[in-house]
Specification:
Elements (H helix, E strand, L loop, with lengths): L2 H8 L3 H19 L9 E5 L6 E4 L15 E4 L13 H13 L5 E5 L2 H7 L10 H7 L2 E4 L8 H10 L5 E4 L3 E6 L2 H21 L11 H12 L7 H13 L7
This protein binds zinc ion.
């Protein structure tokens, strides 16, 4: 369906359409960065001006196929709003749980990259061995593995674990990041995932951890940047330029 046709027929607001385009762009850049797991991970964004509604990928689409109009609009009860569309049950549980628990958040990302699953299985958790790790350690949390996040009880537990952290390592499972905007959430995920890649590449030998007091000062300084209101904006402009220059059809 053509973009203008979908917008006209569905009475999609300009703000929702912009969010749809940015969320579709998020899937596309994740595909380029190979942060994918076939069809089994998901990103969501709140619909501006529609409390209780959020957008998520249609189950079955690869990240390089997702477009603004193919995203599914849902509510917290699991109802699809407007256009029909399949969604992943675990995706609904995770994203509705986090968005309900975090009214300040507008975007949630969830990935299963190999490096992140590897670090999620390490008892030590994310170690302060790289600058990338310092960027996220100030807002890092953990969530224990559950039965594939498939029931609503899990929403409450996950919501509690996400209450005070924006970067979550899901034990034996992967990563989750939370932010006020798509670009902010992406930047947190980029550094969290990169920190996991570095930790797995470094191996389990004797490693140099950033010592105190530099460690605490660095973590506090980087954490403060999360709240400046522009976190990730500059990088996001470059991502959009890249996708547009390559002719990616994510705006369809
Ligand atoms: Zn998962």
């Amino acid at each position: 369906m053509a973009v203008t046709t979908l917008k006209r027929q569905s009475n999609i607001s300009d703000a929702e359409w912009e969010t749809r385009c940015n969320l579709a762009a998020l899937y596309r850049i994740l595909d380029k960065l190979r942060m994918t797991d076939l069809i089994y991970t998901h990103m969501s964004a709140r619909v501006p001006g529609e409390p209780g509604h959020f957008l998520i990928n249609r189950y079955g689409e690869f990240f390089n196929e997702i477009t603004a109009s193919s995203l599914v609009k849902m509510d917290y009860d699991g109802n699809v709003i407007g256009e029909t569309g399949n969604f992943n049950d675990a995706g609904f549980t995770i994203h509705s749980g986090v968005l309900m628990a975090r009214p300040d958040a507008n975007c949630v990302m969830h990935l299963h990259t190999r490096s992140s699953v590897a670090v999620s299985a390490q008892k030590c958790g994310l170690r302060p061995i790289s600058q990338q790790s310092l960027l996220v350690l100030g807002s890092l949390g953990y969530h224990d593995y559950d039965v594939a996040s498939g029931n609503l009880d899990e929403r409450e537990v996950l919501g509690r674990d996400c209450a005070k952290a924006d970067c979550i390592i899901l034990r034996n499972h992967g990563l989750l990041t939370i932010g006020k905007s798509i670009q902010e959430t992406f930047k947190k995920m980029y550094f969290l995932e990169t920190a996991c890649q570095i930790q797995t590449a470094a191996g389990d030998g004797e490693l140099i951890e950033v010592p105190e007091p530099v460690l605490s000062k660095s973590i506090a300084r980087y954490k403060a940047k999360f709240d400046d209101g522009t976190y990730g904006d500059l990088e996001w402009e470059g991502i959009i330029r890249t996708l547009d220059r390559e002719g990616a059809d994510y705006r369809n």
